[in-house]
Amino acid sequence: LLISVSNLCGKCRPRDTDLLQPSLNFLYWSLHQTTPCSQQRAVAVLLSNVSLLELLQKVLECTWLRSPPSGPAYLSSEDALLCSGWLLVASLLLYQHRYNTEVHQTLSVDLTEVLNAVIFRNKKPILLLVSIMQFLRAALRQNFSSSLLVIVGQNTAQGATQPQPSSLQDAALHPLATQQVFSLVVSLQNLLVHKDLLLSQAVVACLETLVEYLYVKNRDVALHVASQPWHRFLLFTLLSGGQKSFLQPEVLRLMTLFVKYQSSNIISQKEISQILQEAVEANLAELPEATSCALHLFLCQV
């Protein structure tokens, strides 16, 4: 069935949304909802299908060709297809690296367009933003060096408020530019203020992966990003809603990030004590799984 559906996708055009949408979703879930042994075979099947990969290339390119909606951002059938395409490609990047699967056709992605989609948003629906961030995370985790992915585009993202970086610093962060990094961080902070659960989870995960990438490439830049004073204001903003508890998954993960990179100007002993006190008073057995996992990571980091 996987072979049949992937062959069917390869015969479609990006505008065949009614057929492609459920087909790409089926391929995505076939990768995730299976045993490791079957997963490895599924990745090999999909990556050996050149027509499918060519179709995915066209779907990704449609992201930049579509004009933003004039009204409130909503998820059209075309946007839903783009979400499925980005999520499937992100998964293929992840599992191709995990199993070192042979690649028969590469995918070209303009990094500047990907970054600008997050930095400027342009009324993109939340689910599409989340899907693009999933792809960005996958590429960051592999240092943009996947054999499946070809990065194109110049480092020309605009909108940064930081001073022009040195060429040496840019070379260390390649293919990212320092200006792009600072613009991306500010945009991720702004997206967190929306307090949308799905968006918050994606933003925090992207921020975690970005700082890890920076720490390997240029430790000074990573520590500078992790210690931005705006992060502290952001934490208080996240805690200012109806649920003021520190035991929120996105808050705990942000706290873990700041503890990990020793951002003492962002998280102090007082906040750590408050989290520990809330954990003592909480019924741990009744905490949601996401909260339990985030609390576990925080305690381990502390």
Automatic annotation (TrEMBL):
GO BP, sorted A to Z: meiosis I
InterPro entries: Immune_Signaling-Apoptosis_Reg (IPR052133)
Organism domain of life: Eukaryota
Record PANTHER family: BCL2 INTERACTING MEDIATOR OF CELL DEATH, MEIOTIC DOUBLE-STRANDED BREAK FORMATION PROTEIN 1
Protein name according to UniProt: MEI1 protein
Organism: Neodrepanis coruscans
Protein encoded by which gene: Mei1
